[in-house]
């Protein structure tokens, strides 16, 4: 099998950060500027599609002939299934080349080096991976690339100096263009060096097949109700203008959006020195205002400030920016986006953090928006920004003559951790009635299950405990999960103790996982747990071998002395800074990674089975899949949920159950 490493440089007036690769490559002015490639052990070649040798009269020069032959050789290899094409973030190369050449780029002929790096716990960007792997200087990514991309790949601002042009071409700066060609060449060198370095840890065949399924799903995308989206965006402009005019009438300010002006207005009118006006400080400011005379205007201004500050239409704007010519949104999920567990990450619209549907009669609200009847909407529903945020899911609609079949795994993480820890009473719950919140409360408080009703205090405590304590959490975890503040602080220690007493095998799993990880790092050997999970340490990487056959990777793992004693640390992306640095982990966190990764692998098996059954998955959110199904296929939902309940080959005894519903637009049932 031949291997060709590919890297391209492109131009488009569409901002790829806002619109994603698919809409970017559909722009009328999109073009490929440079194609760097390397076949097997041959030298890197760069096809300069902007300044390649030009014809002289009717005859081709020798340079032109050679360039033409080079282009033909590349295109021949690109479309030859006997050549495996590799790229760092191969989705970009596939999408752009397919758009430019008007020819399909089957994912089965491609491999993604970025995914390969993610499976080993490495950072997301090419340069950062090269640094983490310690590549020699001549194989590192060229650091000047960012400024060159800004110059040649994006529109420029017209100025008097540049003659009012809106785009920089090679002839505008030949020196920069030469550097750009070398930058493209060096990217191929870096990508190839990374690929070779990682080749001793090949991507499992099942993962490669899953990536291909993911690519086809992203290529297909999900249909958007664009008239619905446009109605909301158009109305929001009117609504925001109305709020601004009201704010001007109340305050008399030129710019009531200005925090400095608004704080000064409160000082002059109410004698209040306000440091900040945010959703956290507004309740306190309101309480202070209520103690003063004639404060109705001040309170209303805070309400307007809140309304104007809400981001309820940002996702609609993202949809408008990213929708493709066929009316579909593509590329909303990134394969292996969470490189600690291998779960997908959301992109563009961020489907993993869509608001819940909490407004009553969402069908009516959606219908009124679709009809443009915002007067009735305002009369029947309170708070337009809130209503719009609740309707975001409903902008996703099935293809023509189809409906959505939405199905998810019921309590998948709770089932997986019970199965891995062999917590028998929990497994019995999931093999029978499935009421884990009630059963947990029954175990903790020694109350008969039938006495714990929905809405009761005991069930609420059981629910909070289940959601907060499975991975070693304690007081802080309960406080974070109990957003309503229903559990008094003095009761939390007892709740934690009762939960742990009721689930001793899960607690033991935390301890065993941490002990095994430390032993693997210290002794450089494989340590196996009774449930089949294994820990090993090879080339500075701590691997956790899952029962699915996949491995989790913790790069540059070490045992270090901290204020907690011996701690496991590794190199990874810090959540706050989003930078590559040292992270700490422990037993509960390792178990969380194992459980979430195992749940992800269950979803992966199910997605492949559902796809093989002939159903088109347009997207998936957490443990839920959304399928486009012809309306005439009346038995589809049962078939899909039955597939979700089937035993996983590598997980005998894991009790799974699929729940689902049918809908004419996406929503939370």
TrEMBL record:
<dbReference type="GO" id="GO:0006302">
    <property type="term" value="P:double-strand break repair"/>
</dbReference>
<dbReference type="InterPro" id="IPR012337">
    <property type="entry name" value="RNaseH-like_sf"/>
</dbReference>
<dbReference type="InterPro" id="IPR001098">
    <property type="entry name" value="DNA-dir_DNA_pol_A_palm_dom"/>
</dbReference>
<dbReference type="Pfam" id="PF00476">
    <property type="entry name" value="DNA_pol_A"/>
</dbReference>
<protein>
    <recommendedName>
        <fullName>DNA-directed DNA polymerase</fullName>
        <ecNumber>2.7.7.7</ecNumber>
    </recommendedName>
</protein>
<dbReference type="InterPro" id="IPR002298">
    <property type="entry name" value="DNA_polymerase_A"/>
</dbReference>
<dbReference type="GO" id="GO:0006261">
    <property type="term" value="P:DNA-templated DNA replication"/>
</dbReference>
<feature type="domain" description="DNA-directed DNA polymerase family A palm">
    <location>
        <begin position="389"/>
        <end position="633"/>
    </location>
</feature>
<dbReference type="InterPro" id="IPR043502">
    <property type="entry name" value="DNA/RNA_pol_sf"/>
</dbReference>
<dbReference type="GO" id="GO:0003677">
    <property type="term" value="F:DNA binding"/>
</dbReference>
<keyword id="KW-0235">DNA replication</keyword>
<dbReference type="GO" id="GO:0003887">
    <property type="term" value="F:DNA-directed DNA polymerase activity"/>
</dbReference>
């Amino acid at each position: 099998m031949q291997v060709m490493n590919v890297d391209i440089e492109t131009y488009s007036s569409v901002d790829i950060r806002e619109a994603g690769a698919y809409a970017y490559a559909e722009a009328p002015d999109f073009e490929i500027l440079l194609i760097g490639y390397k076949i097997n052990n041959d030298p890197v070649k760069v096809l300069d599609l902007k300044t390649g040798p030009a014809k002289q009269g009717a005859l081709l020069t020798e340079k032109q002939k050679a360039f033409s032959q080079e282009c033909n050789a590349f295109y021949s290899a690109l479309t030859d299934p006997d050549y495996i094409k590799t790229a760092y973030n191969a989705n970009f190369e596939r999408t752009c080349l397919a758009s430019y050449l008007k020819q399909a780029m089957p994912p089965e002929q491609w491999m993604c080096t970025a995914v390969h790096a993610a499976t080993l716990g490495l950072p997301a960007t090419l340069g950062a991976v090269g640094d983490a792997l310690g590549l020699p200087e001549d194989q590192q990514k060229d650091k000047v690339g960012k400024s060159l991309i800004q110059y040649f790949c994006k529109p420029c601002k017209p100025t008097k100096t540049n003659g009012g042009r809106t785009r920089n071409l090679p002839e505008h700066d030949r020196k920069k263009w030469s550097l750009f060609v070398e930058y493209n060449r060096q990217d191929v060198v870096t990508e190839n060096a990374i690929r070779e370095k990682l080749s001793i840890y090949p991507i499992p065949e099942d993962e490669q097949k899953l990536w291909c399924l993911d690519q086809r799903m992203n290529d297909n995308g999900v249909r958007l109700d664009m008239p619905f989206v446009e109605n909301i965006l158009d109305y929001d402009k009117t609504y925001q203008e109305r709020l601004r005019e009201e704010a001007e009438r109340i305050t008399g300010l030129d710019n009531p959006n200005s925090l400095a002006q608004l704080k000064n207005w409160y000082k002059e009118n109410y004698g209040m020195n306000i440091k900040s006006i945010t959703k956290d400080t507004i309740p306190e400011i309101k309480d202070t205002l209520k103690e003063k005379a004639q404060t109705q205007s001040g309170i209303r201004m805070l309400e307007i400030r809140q309304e104007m500050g809400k981001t309820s239409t940002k996702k609609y704007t993202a949809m408008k920016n990213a929708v493709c010519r066929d009316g579909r949104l593509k590329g909303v999920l990134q394969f292996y986006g969470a490189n600690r567990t291998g779960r997908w990450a959301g992109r563009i619209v961020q489907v993993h953090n869509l608001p819940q549907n909490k407004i009553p009669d969402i069908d009516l609200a959606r219908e009124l928006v679709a009809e443009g009847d915002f007067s009735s909407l305002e009369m029947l529903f309170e708070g337009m920004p809130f209503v719009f945020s609740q309707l975001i899911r409903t902008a996703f609609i099935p293809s023509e003559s189809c409906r959505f079949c939405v199905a998810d795994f019921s309590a998948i993480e709770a089932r997986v951790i019970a199965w891995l820890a062999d917590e028998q009473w929990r497994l019995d719950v999931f093999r029978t009635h499935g009421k884990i919140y009630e059963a947990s409360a029954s175990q903790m408080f020694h109350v008969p299950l039938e006495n714990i009703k929905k809405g009761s205090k005991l069930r609420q405590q059981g629910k909070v405990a289940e959601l907060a304590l499975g991975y070693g959490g304690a007081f802080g975890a309960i406080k974070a999960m109990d957003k309503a503040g229903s559990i008094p602080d003095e009761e939390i220690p007892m709740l934690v103790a009762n939960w742990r007493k009721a689930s001793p095998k899960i607690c033991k799993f935390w301890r065993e996982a941490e002990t095994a990880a430390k032993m693997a790092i210290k002794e450089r050997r494989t340590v196996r747990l009774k449930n089949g999970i294994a820990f090993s340490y090879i080339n500075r990487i701590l691997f956790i071998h899952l029962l699915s056959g996949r491995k989790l990777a913790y790069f540059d793992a070490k045992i270090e002395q901290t204020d907690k004693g011996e701690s496991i640390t590794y190199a990874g992306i810090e959540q706050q800074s989003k930078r590559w640095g040292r992270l700490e982990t422990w037993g509960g966190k390792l178990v969380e990674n194992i459980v979430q990764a195992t749940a992800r692998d269950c979803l992966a098996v199910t997605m492949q089975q559902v796809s093989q059954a002939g159903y088109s998955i347009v997207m998936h959110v957490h443990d839920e899949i959304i399928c486009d199904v012809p309306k005439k296929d009346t038995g589809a939902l049962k078939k899909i949920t039955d597939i979700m309940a089937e035993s996983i080959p590598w997980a005998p005894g894991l009790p799974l159950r699929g729940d689902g519903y049918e809908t004419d637009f996406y929503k939370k049932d």
